[in-house]
Design brief:
By secondary structure, the protein is α+β, with helices and mostly antiparallel strands. About 40% of the residues lie in helices and about 10% in strands. The chain has a two-stranded antiparallel sheet with strand order 1-2. Helix 2 packs across helix 3. The two termini are about 25 Å apart.
């Protein structure tokens, strides 16, 4: 839900920054409270596809399958994080 902006634009931007930094290997849904929060996997998939393309969406999907199979995830090397706080942003890319 963070990637679709449910928790606000700052959290959405933070979530996108984490993907930009190669610190994300998959996405999942918060399933412990389905009465007030619905699953939004389709919407999140659309955001990932629009922002990062088919390759990243496929990587995240394959990694979710790898976890189910108890196998290692595929990953890209993380990018360096510069800690700054500008206009409410938490992470900045180097």
């Amino acid at each position: 839900m963070s990637l679709i902006g449910y928790f606000g634009t700052r959290i959405k931007r933070f979530s996108l920054d984490v993907i930009d930094l190669n610190l994300t290997h998959m996405f999942a849904s918060d399933a412990h409270n389905t009465r007030t929060r619905d699953f939004h996997i389709k919407e999140v998939s659309e955001v990932v596809f629009m922002e990062y393309g088919e390759e990243t969406l496929s990587l995240f999907s394959e990694n979710a399958n790898q976890v189910i199979l108890r196998k290692p995830c595929y990953k890209n090397l993380p990018k360096r994080v510069i800690k700054k706080k500008i206009s409410g942003d938490i992470l900045k890319l180097n």
